[in-house]
Amino acid sequence: MKALVQAFQHSMDDTISAIATAPGEGGIGIVRLSGPAALVIAGKLFRGIKDRRIQAIKSYQAAYGNIVDPDTGQAVDEALVLVMRNPHSYTKEDVVEIQCHGGMVPLRRILELTVQAGARIAEPGEFTKRAFLNGRLDLSQAEAVIDVIRAKTDASLKMAVGQLNGAVSQKVQGLRQELLAMIAHLEAAIDFPEEDIDAVAVDRVQASVNQVLVTVNAMLATASTGQILREGLATVIIGKPNVGKSSLLNALSGQNRAIVTDIPGTTRDIIEEYVNIRGIPLRVLDTAGIRDTADAVEQIGVERAKASLEQADLILLVLDASTPLTTEDRQVITFLTGRKGIVLVNKSDLPAVWDIAEIQTGIGGTRIISLSIQQGSGLDRLEQAIVDMVYSGSLILGEGGIVNNVRHIMILRQAKSHLEAALATICQGMPLDCISIDIRAAWEKLGEITGDTLGEDIIDKIFSEFCIGK
After folding, report:
1. Do the annotations mark residue 348 as ligand-binding?
2. Annotated binding residue at 457?
3. What is the mean pLDDT of residues 75-84?
């Protein structure tokens, strides 16, 4: 970690500045400064009431006044200035936040003045990057910051906050400590062969490796749920025209997002909407009704509907119980083969003209739910089916860290591979130093999650995905 700080030291000597609030108009906008000259730069611009200066403001106190152009003395905007002195700030550096009116013109003008006074524009994620490099956050906690910002439901927010508070970090650090103890034990046995402790060392290490593998596998078991809560469950609604697909989207989203008519082929393109199902974010795609058509535009919609199935995590297949099954229905049913799906038999409020047994063979063990979208009956069973599918009936939010980051998942899989190699080495009776090499590789790999053993190029890539000002 010390080497990383040294690698980035040239950029950390600068004082950075950025607009920290979202683009657009709002009641309040914030320009944030961080770095060794933050107080000096803000002091050139701020004129408090009764000529109060930045240096007189205590940490965590706000002062009211004006931001002025030092060259002309002209006021740019009235503002509140909040001072946070190092090391008790987000970045562990001197930080000043200028809170002004939330229009783009005053914000950009104040940002421009901070640059003229000696700051430079911050890179994406550079404030959080400095928090990481200065030891306030480890890398997995820093990555959780963007998950908090992008959280789509209470459940995804709860997961992200848990990671921000170190739920994953603590587990990983615990595993690394166990692996380090194994490495020390093996190296002691290598350095003092006359003590004849080889057999004892190997037995103890083998048991410890198996124990670590149990924890790694348990963390990987949360990955599917974690990614869904982070990214949203890609859900595609399919069916022939006029079975109730658009009505289902409207019912799930609670708004008239899609046009609903009795005319077949009303939906001609894909409509996308995020839906919250008991804390689970669904990225729902309502597709064109699948059928053979001579209409060129509708035909394009049908092809896009079929293509969307390739990216689907969940398929909601809608059938109409009040009309006979058609060739189009049976064609759509074939799309469920080898995929996660739920069959929704709609219009259960009307007399049924076919029996569910007629489709059982084509859908295998796929769950079937009868419902009436128009009357709202059966939607609760659909929601519960989605919850059961995502959580598999076993995961409780808040119990330890949920792994939701693709980078973390890949690292855990690689660490698992090294640990399994160590066990194979033990079983083959290989020398202790060979066992130690595999365990050390797992220890180093897990350090990439927290940032203890990671190159600066990867760190730059991670923080480049953040928004500017965070």
Report:
1. no
2. no
3. 95
